[in-house]
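Chapter summary example.
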Amino acid sequence: MDRPFRMLVATTFRSLRHRDYRLYFVGQIVSFTGSWMQNAALMWFVFDRTGNPLWPPLLLVAQVGPTLLLGTWGGSLADRTPKRRLILRTQTAFLLNACALTALVGVGAAVPGAILALQLLNGAIQAVDLPARLAFVPDLVPRDDLINAVALNSLLFNCARAVGPAIAGWLFFVAQWLVQSDSAPGWEKVSLGAVLCFGANAVSYAAVLIALSWIRTPGIRPPRSEPGSTLDGWRYVRANPMLTGLLLLTGGVCVFGWPAVSLFPAYTRLVLHLAETEYSQLVSGLGVGALAGALATATFGSVARRGAFFTAGTVGVAAGLGGLAVAATLPLAVASAACLGFGMILFLSTGQSTMQLSATDDSRGRVMALWAMTLSASAPVGHLLAGASAAAVGVTAVFAGMAAGATIVAAAALGITLARGWKVDGRP
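The structure predicted for these 428 residues follows.
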């Protein structure tokens, strides 16, 4: 019994055998935990200030929207610049942005417009950082371990998604304890909790900066990179119908799946009639499900199982959204959020590795920029539609509509799997 278990663990975490990837993994898990603390706290802080369910989606749009405009340029830059050096610069910029947000809330100047401006700046940094990080992973592991490394990246990201909001909820509790006066307004307690979360995120970036400074792999740019070649990624994907289909399905999954997290503050208060501690449990439930999806992909994911994982992922998204539409209690809502997270990561981890494996070394940054741009193009559409619809018809009705749309995407994924087998470059 002990030996099979050790073999399973060795299989699941095999990419950690490589020193540079191991350093990168540890640094990122600390940094991502801080980022999810900030994201959860920011959504609740803004909703608490405005009482408008449209504001949290607007902030998420501001965070991902710049990637749609700048992602191609960011991918080209990742192919022209040593990736480790580029990521060091973008992570430093993230740290400074987190410090600015902490100071803004700390001095009481955090009006929604100012926070929106900082989110836009954060999004512009991400437009460069994300393609570089996606293209950097193949430099850290051999090709045979790439699917596993991508899955482990999803694992650490979603472990942070589960842990970060939980820590944020605890810090909000600490803030309530520190501001014990009955005469103290509720917004003061929320502000202190937000400052603690934003400050912790700023400190967390030190981990990934230290890890990057110790990594020996420079992320060397290819010897040849032509000016004006940012359209190479489009040409490559357009020549491969399966990759085109994958990007279209990815857009559908993200349009219906991503907005859930931006609706959680309104869902918690208006549907479940609960507060910030329960909200953090809901976000953590999403992260726990995503963590399970990443573990499943890391352990069992392979090129041959690609179609099954795509289909199962879309079914999980549809089921999770449907559960949120009918949930009347916190346990059922958390379970539904976990199902949603499981499906999202099962699909996205497999899709990301498919894109990475399909790209040549000198075009990987631009191909992965297309992947990032697809995520960034679909997310604002989903967030804005969901936020505006929630304000008009209610959060429950929006979740029901999202579940219906995700069901259509699941049917399309199943049809493609049965008809074509997800061949890439002629290989099943």
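To summarize the output: Residues 14-420 form a domain with the Growth Hormone; Chain: A; fold (CATH 1.20.1250.20).
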